[in-house]
Amino acid sequence: xxGDVLSQNEIDALLSALSTGEMDADELKKEEEERKVxxxxxxxxxRFSKDQIRSLTRIHENFARLLTxxxxxQLRNFVQITVASTDQIPYExxxxxxxxxxxLNVFDVPPLDGHILxxxxxxxxxxxxxxxxxxxxxxxxxxxxxxxxxxxxxTNLFEKAFENYQEAWGNVTQIDPILSxxxxxxxxxxxxxxxxTVVVISMNTTIGDTSGMINICIPxxxxxxxxxxxxxHYWMQNQKKERKPGEVERIENRLKDAIxxxxxxxxxxxxxxxxFLMLGVGDIIELQQKIDEPLTIKIGTSxxxxxxxxxxxKKLAVQILDTLKGGEEDDE
Length: 332
Fold this sequence. Notes:
One of its GO terms (biological process) is positive chemotaxis. By secondary structure, this protein is of the alpha+beta class. The chain is 34% helix and 24% strand. It is elongated.
């Protein structure tokens, strides 16, 4: 069967049959192409596209940067948090992959339904507590014997940390994370059914000399209402913000009153530094502009029009002849 591992004797027999002509390699290849059977594991249903996984990775890379800044300021120690991987797996598989005793923070994320789980390696959690209480950031793993004070400090730390989650998701949807449950034993935590697909974002975390992982587990049911917003098209399109009535008109009216410099450039010339130092009163600098050529009109520093010089009401003036195309900042 496809997928079975052949023994060395079977491999030798196969090679012998091919060499003696009892089997034809081309026929085997043709038969394999005709079948084209692919094994599908219903327990590992892939419910997120690669595009959506990339979007979730970008969101959590931003979250990791925000956490790095927050913990660095709060703990006054070297902190580095980066996204290591983003995978979609069954919830049961995620529970089996984390330590038997660890720090589990369950958050509600209204208006979305369901919960998001933040799992923090105990070494990381204890290093944070040690820094908050004035220590050097050492780590011990006695998560099964957490005191009430340690539990309170941890919940406060991670509740503040998850406030940054709202900002990380700001470009996609507005959420209001609320810590709803704190647990240390994954077996007592059943957010979704064992076969439910979840996205697990693993973040490498370093605090001083201590390293560990922070995992964010998001069930598919939580993201289902906003899955269309996780596409590249949604991220790249220009999102028009809702404007108050009359706001556009007020902006246009203010722009109409804005003053911009208009320069009629008669011409230019280039000379050497030596000639410049020798200039005196009465000297003449010849411009490269011919007298019968139109002048260039600049708006600010960008050439926009051509014009011819003249007079109007006994004052020097220019008459616009044409519009220049391709000038800097030209929107036409």
